[in-house]
Amino acid sequence: MEKPKRHIFVCTSSRINGQQKGYCHAKAGVEIVSRFMEEIEECELGGEVFVSNTGCFGICEKGPIVVIYPDNIWYGSVTPDDVERIIEQHIEGGEPVKELML
After folding, report:
1. Which has more confidence, 23 or 20?
2. Among the listed residues 69, 102, 64, the one whose alpha carbon sits nearest the alpha carbon of residue 83
3. Residue 45 lies in a domain
4. Is 79 left (phi over 0), alpha (psi -120 to 50) or beta?
5. What's the domain range around 40?
6. pLDDT band for position 2 (50/70/90)?
7. 3-state DSSP of the chain
8. Residues ≥6 apart with Cβ < 8 Å to 7
9. CATH number of the domain within which 22 lies
10. Is it the case that residue 49 has pLDDT exceeding 90?
């Protein structure tokens, strides 16, 4: 397996005990992960871009949080409707979505 060009982390409020509860989970964090997976597949980016759900980043008031590495770009208040734009503009186009950046 090759190392991906980008890795997208989405807070889903996952807890060590496996429970998902909290702000980002309640604000569609899991749906955001699903949308990223769909967009990655649709755009045929599967070998280049990975997506993972995470636990809390500690800035719940700005959630749901999406972090893209190695770019070190943090997005806040992301909705499922923002995913397509993040993929097209940032991942494919190389330009971060400034309105969502933290």
Report:
1. 23
2. 64
3. yes
4. beta
5. 6-100
6. confident
7. CCCCCEEEEEECCECCCCCECCHHHHCCHHHHHHHHHHHHHHCCCCCCEEEEEECCCCCHHHCCCEEEECCCEEECCCCHHHHHHHHHHHHHCCCCCHHHEC
8. 49, 50, 51, 52, 68, 69, 70
9. 3.40.30.10
10. yes
Whether residue 1 lies inside any domain: the answer is: no
The token pair at 25 is 């989970």
Predicted confidence at residue 18, as pLDDT, reads: 63
How many domains are there within the chain?
1
Q: Which two tokens stand for residue 5?
A: 């060009």
Task: Provide the residue count of the chain.
Answer: 102
| Beta-sheet strand order (sheet of 73-75) | 49-54, 6-11, 66-69, 73-75
